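Sample 1 of the test manifest.
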Amino acid sequence: MAAGTATVTAAALVTDMVKLLGPERVFHKDVDLKTYTYDSSFVSQINNFTPEVVVMPTSTEEVSRIMRYADQHGVAVTPRGAGSGQTGGSVAVRGGIVMDLSAWDDIVEVDEVNMQVVVRPGVVHAELNNHISSYGLYFPPDPGSSEWATIGGMVANNASGLRAVKYGNTGQYVLGLEVVMPDGQVIRTGGLKSKALKSVSGLNLTGLFLASEGTLGVITEVRLKVWPKPPSRAIVVAYFDRLEDAAQSVLEVFKAGILPSGIEILDDGAIRSVNLFKPQLKLPEVEAAIFFEVNGSKAATEDEGRQIEEIAKRRAGSVEMATDAKRMKELWTGRQAIGAASARAKPNAARIFAGEDVCFPMAKVPEALRRIKEIGREHDTMVVIYGHIGDGNMHTAPIIDPLKPEEVEAAQRVAEDIHRLALEIGGATTGEHGVGFVRAAFMEEEHGAALTVMRRIKDCLDPKGIMNPGKIWAEE
Amino acid sequence: MAAGTATVTAAALVTDMVKLLGPERVFHKDVDLKTYTYDSSFVSQINNFTPEVVVMPTSTEEVSRIMRYADQHGVAVTPRGAGSGQTGGSVAVRGGIVMDLSAWDDIVEVDEVNMQVVVRPGVVHAELNNHISSYGLYFPPDPGSSEWATIGGMVANNASGLRAVKYGNTGQYVLGLEVVMPDGQVIRTGGLKSKALKSVSGLNLTGLFLASEGTLGVITEVRLKVWPKPPSRAIVVAYFDRLEDAAQSVLEVFKAGILPSGIEILDDGAIRSVNLFKPQLKLPEVEAAIFFEVNGSKAATEDEGRQIEEIAKRRAGSVEMATDAKRMKELWTGRQAIGAASARAKPNAARIFAGEDVCFPMAKVPEALRRIKEIGREHDTMVVIYGHIGDGNMHTAPIIDPLKPEEVEAAQRVAEDIHRLALEIGGATTGEHGVGFVRAAFMEEEHGAALTVMRRIKDCLDPKGIMNPGKIWAEE
């Protein structure tokens, strides 16, 4: 059988999908399926969640036909974008169909005057911004994975990233969605024909599908508000001997009435990793480096940059501000390199994604980071920390040898303890990556009775439980 | 009987409510009930939707007990804040209980470091901002009704107002809600104990309750993100002989990469009304006045103000920029006076709220405003127009003698035509005020199949249909 509740065999499922889409966009050989068994989450990489078939629809009608079929035959469907998620959200933990939407990447419309774009789910974030920059427009949320993350995935996870301090998350820009419901019905949220920049007409279905992680339907089109591109930016990087001083400086910048477009942190381990990866950067090896970015008019960025520089100097060992493009790029490289660099913190090791997206109350960030380091020590696991200190959203990276079972087990305990720490001190288990299956076990503790209301909505919109099963809710 | 499906008499309902809350916070005399038969919508004012009883709970436990009772006895419950809404949303069109939450106005917590506040639903917008300004914080959305609108009402309608261009709507600041469900169950969205500034954990219930207009549950507590207060602002007012030039200047400001905190318009009728109301202002009687506001650092606001002044001068007959507080206040008075002034456009007339909140695509604003004037002429009704041109959200005000039935009837036809115009040219029937019962008849045309999905969610969360019945969905 194709999945838990399916009424067709895997072979029949493949045959039927070929009938719907033709042979070129249906994959069922082991070698093809293998690449769909994981995303960036460590747990998916050490398991083997294999779908029966992968399909690549490129029209709403095709998606609707697939969903009608899946509904009729009780087959699980897992929508997938770039597969760059870190929660297993796009992995078919119950088998069935993986619906790969990454090839459906049309920018349907750029409406310059109405400041909005219409895109299909597979459009990559960086490609969208490259495309619309010639119109003087941009889509402000900036996930670290800009070069591969798809807009469909960003909506399904309500992604945010480096500019959320000032610009919030993806959801703040979503004006409307086309969604194929689990039974194949096609709806449009935000108004059937609307190009309005604001609407409060009817229940907020757009909001409900945000961060629904493919559990309520398939997002097949996104109408996004975009904004005039700020003409200027400035970067201030400050190096602090003490983590607490770094956190305090962030609060003092806010206190001055400044809302930077981004505030990022590298902890001592992250700084060392970057230096090992790019020795020419020679970052001072202090306890915390903070990267402030401001944007706006030239006068504004220079003024606010100077103010931030003054504020940071009160507590930092060294501070540098840059407004010219070349130096800004060099300074920002330190922040950008950490994703690739973190594994350098330990010889023959890899950085894994586990417990990597906790969000802490601003006041608790220093305490939280110290406790994460303790957790690492308790489990004899190196943990490098970086992320969006401007909103408390920290990316913690266990560095392990994934071929050593004891290190793998320790890393999983580290991730569990980090999640529990977030809940204990009033944070959230995930600031921007989502729940998937890796955090499903924490949902009851995090949400209490609200989880039952979420479940009622899920059961009402997907009564057969075929949409991305095994995510958000832990095994019954 | 107390309402359509109620199993208790009105007298028993009153007795039972007194048992739950005591006599001081339960009202049932005709004179008391009368003040709850309307809100600011014209349609509610010419009808007589009288509840059987009004209750004023001031704790979650009380709200929960009332909802358990209502669930058990099938009694309709209509939550109400200040009653300043313009859709009939807080009026008991099916009788039953009006739950007046305006007295429950505790600011539970101001958490300066975590930049968030926790408030009960009855807190008034202006009071919240007055209270937190001493912490250097502010809640950016600015409804014109700031002096009376409650935060509960703002969440229930996802209100926005004069600063939505840059700061979006109420929803972008809501981190979590406490909600009493229709059966009395109490849930907390956004995490049981979370003080995180970002979370994508679980289905977005916070988003679902935004703009749900009391149809899914009662909002009993709101956790809001607040922001550092910008230290400076500047105002530029420009007067245009032609509406099209005014609209074009707005687009040119965006094109320069500037995102003003507000962009407001007064049309010729609105300007004349303001001059009749406050003759000392002597506004130039042109076709359109545009009020730009920018905020941020002092250097930023002066720089962006100057840029806007230059851009506006290309097309405007006259332009004035102000950065000193006194002159800014004088200039802004022109915009602020319009709410009270609009009735002056015609002797012995009143301004009514009907068709007052359409939102047009930016590119269609001039065409839409000209067509609204035509609609007015067709029905021999004066229509004054003002509002948030920065996001296309226009407030249209029919000016009539409400004692003349033919003028009342004409105004209702004007409102209907304005709503149809919005749908025809790709706008929305409501940008920020909501649906209530006055726009319920347009929902099917506006949303198509999505309306059935909204209904499924409604039926799933409120199976007995007791939460604010008769709103969003037209009569079955």
